Amino acid sequence: AAGVIQSPRHLIKEKRETATLKCYPIPRHDTVYWYQQGPGQDPQFLISFYEKMQSDKGSIPDRFSAQQFSDYHSELNMSSLELGDSALYFCASSPRPAPGEKLFFGSGTQLSVL
Amino acid sequence: AQKITQTQPGMFVQEKEAVTLDCTYDTSDQSYGLFWYKQPSSGEMIFLIYQGSYDEQNATEGRYSLNFQKARKSANLVISASQLGDSAMYFCAMRGNTNAGKSTFGDGTTLTVKP
Prior knowledge:
Chain A is 0% helix and 50% strand.
């Protein structure tokens, strides 16, 4: 079965650089979520999209932006990277944003900012 | 606002025994879902089990069951017949109908299964 695909798996950047993370949801999943997980921490919700519109917004820094495209894939753009941005970034998808919908997670992108 | 509390940072269990991982939650939503996810050391997040707020019966999925006590706002995960491969971080999460576009996670419990 198709799963959520994230690219790249690993990314190394230097401070003040920019990074773009990509997420391809499961086919027919209209909702995409982005989470940031620091070492030893729980996933922190950043932002979600449903039908290409922002659905909910969490603790996403102003330096970050995201969007969902017409083919439902999503990109998280991160600018002016800081050391504290080093984390595992998960993308997840579900058919729709509803209380009963479980999240299908991708394998994550490990971002290291040096 | 939603909040998930997992009070056990770490738990140990002997192989083949059962273990309960605690989770309490707080929400003002009438309709909500409760989830447990497993995160092995490899990093991926794996869905384990779901309980809806209006479900009258406790959810079960193979060796996993969810002890749902709505009045106490608790949703404990019970793993029966623990296996070495169950060693991982376990997260309790919830999503409500007012902010259905996000899931809130607890701090997680690290489970170690001893041979």
